From TrEMBL:
Protein name: Protein RRNAD1-like
Native source organism of the sequence: Trifolium pratense
InterPro entries to which the protein is assigned, alphabetical: Methyltranfer_dom (IPR025714), METTL25 (IPR052220), SAM-dependent_MTases_sf (IPR029063)
Domain Methyltransferase: 124-199
Domain of life per record: Eukaryota
């Protein structure tokens, strides 16, 4: 069994190597398992493309063992190729350990969102946007970024906080046109609020 590689994002080169390894690992499975819709998996019997030795082994395993596979838990009696596949896959998972944000970004100051800019957000989303916008703003300022591009912006919550509250030039991109319309409508309401605030203070 090959030695498990340790991936990191400490440098741009490390991050790119990680991304390339993920692409290389997934490429053989695109046509059979990643691109097809779920209905095609059943209609076209795509499970037949799975290694027959793996299927024969796993169909006899207790459910509790199968549920542990995403965590990288393998059994000694499993085929070597299956164990290597699972451990390799597990090694490429992005670490989700919670970091101390104040240690990672000393001096970070999170700003509470007012009710206008937070419109449409539930409590969880509001907390996430407050934290993430502060982090993105701090990083953008530290590298003197001229603009921030939010790819997969959704309904524009993060982009609008960065634009209106932190005064960054932001480009929000999303594949869903409906999200774009929702974002534009929210932006107009937020603009009116900030414009009226400026008039009152002026």
């Amino acid at each position: 069994m090959t030695e498990e590689r340790r991936y990191s994002c400490e440098t741009a080169a490390d991050t790119l190597a990680w991304i390339n390894d993920i692409i290389h690992f997934l490429t053989p499975y695109f046509s059979s398992f990643i691109n097809p819709h779920v209905v095609n998996f059943f209609k076209d019997q795509l499970w037949e493309n799975v290694n027959a030795e793996w299927i024969d082994c796993l169909r006899r395993e207790p459910v509790q063992n199968l549920l542990l596979i995403p965590s990288g838990v393998v059994k000694d009696h499993w085929p070597a190729s299956l164990k290597e596949y699972i451990l390799k896959l597990r090694s490429m998972v992005f670490c989700q350990e919670q970091a101390d944000i104040n240690m990672a970004l000393p001096g970070l100051q999170m700003t509470s969102l007012n009710r206008v800019i937070a419109q449409g957000m539930n409590g969880k989303k509001r907390h996430e946007v407050e934290a993430l916008s502060a982090v993105v703003s701090t990083v953008a300022e530290s590298v003197r970024a001229h603009a921030i591009v939010d790819v997969g912006a959704g309904q524009g919550y993060l982009a609008q906080v960065l634009a209106f509250q932190y005064q960054h030039p932001v480009i929000a991109i999303d594949a869903c046109s409906h999200h774009g319309m929702v974002t534009d409508a929210r932006a107009e309401r937020i603009k009116k609020h900030y414009t009226s605030q400026m008039v009152k203070s002026g």
